[in-house]
Amino acid sequence: MLNMAEGIARLAALAESPVVATVAAVFADAGFELAIVGGPVRDALLGRPTHDLDFTTDARPDDILRIVTPISTAHWDIGRAFGTIGARVAGEQVEITTFRADSYDGTTRKPTVEFGDTLDGDLARRDFTVNAMALRVPGRTLVDPTGGVEDLVRGILRTPVDPRVSFGDDPLRMLRAARFSSQLGFAVEADTLAAIEQLRATIEIVSPERIQAELVRLLQTDDPVRGIRILVETGLVDEFLPEIPALRLEVDEHHHHKDVYEHSLTVLRQAIDLEHERHPDAGPDVALRIAALLHDIGKPATRKLEPGGGVTFHHHDVKGSRLARKRLQALRFDSGTIGSVAQLIEQHLRFFGYAEGAWTDSAVRRYVRDAGPELERLHILTRADVTTRNKRKATRLRAAYDDIERRIAELAAQEELDSMRPELDGNRIQEILGLTPGREVGEAYRFLMDIRLDEGIVGEDEAERRLRAWWAART
Predict the structure, then answer these.
(1) What residues make up the domain containing 368?
(2) pTM for the full predicted model
(3) Residue pLDDT, tens place only, 37-67
(4) Are residues 332 and 218 in the same domain?
(5) Furthest CA-CA distance within the chain
(6) What pLDDT does 255 receive?
(7) Where are the alpha helices (DSSP H) in 93-201?
(8) Tally of domains in the chain
(9) Which residues sit opposite 36 in a β-bridge?
């Protein structure tokens, strides 16, 4: 529960920090207004860590740059067209933005930039009341024209003006509602939810890059499931990631299978728990979380109802990998993330054959080789994919995966699996067989790699003997 006395004390401490005091003094000396705005004010009141500082001012960008240059060790004006100047002051990064009144014109994918004249006007055009509070500095006056403090106390997300007007100004705010709900643990107010449902198609005018960036921020929260439910229930996610609501497969009275949508949300939640457990000091693994959420998106397209009430999803892993790749490309994800997610989805079923019977060392080596750098993520995803309520089955699967990880570790210690290669490289193959670079060298390399995977290290002499025998049998 919000303790206002403690929150005000934290705001006072923020205002007294060296960076704020320094920036506030030079703007006051220059005759301009200055206020800390948005997230830092909200987080100070909530007792959450504050990160980069955002300021707003009546100064125009050229004036901002002139004022901060003498007190900064670095500055950048990449956002000047949008009224924003960045700087490093007293060792911290700050952004200072002219009062804004942006809006979309309803047709282009970028907002029109309009500078405002008052702090209250700037705050009224922000996304949510809890982000529409400011602390004037150096005077330390809390400015809250839209009831943000009350909404912090209630744990509510509400737009400062009619949500239809707010979302018309910037449709991305609909997606931000889901993200802030997850980030803060707040509920979205009913009229705001209704407006998202009504205006969801307008997200089309927002660029894929902005949608992707907001989706990533949602997935980086500790509880993205809360926000994903909002996206699905309002229909907003249908506009840019329809594979998620498609997981809500109909189940008739004759054919039964698990709820794929709820299963996927559970897998995402369990993957995050395992991520924290196994790598407590690491940041959120976005590629892993996307793979967990989308790992079964191939099921709707591959579902087959069998006689007697059975349901199959043959090759949904391969189908899902292709669907994920295509969707993430449309959202302008980088190639590394796309490749990782597609590979994890395609390989997420591989382990379950191990649970039916222990693999040979060769099979374990192939599992490691095929996973490559995604092995640790595959460990987490596969473990998270166990959502059965059958405790005996869950225990058996957990023990099986404990066993495969143990065997991987033992083999890695013996054979350096992470850098597994044949015992003869391409140059040596060419030397032995009298070849020049080409297809036949690649075939020989793969032959030796199969020996390495099936039998482990056999020694260079034995590898050469077998290579010569293999080559003689071909010619």
Answers:
(1) 245-419
(2) 0.82
(3) 999 999 999 999 887 899 999 999 999 999 9
(4) no
(5) 89
(6) 41
(7) 119-124, 148-154, 163-169, 172-184, 190-199
(8) 4
(9) 55, 135
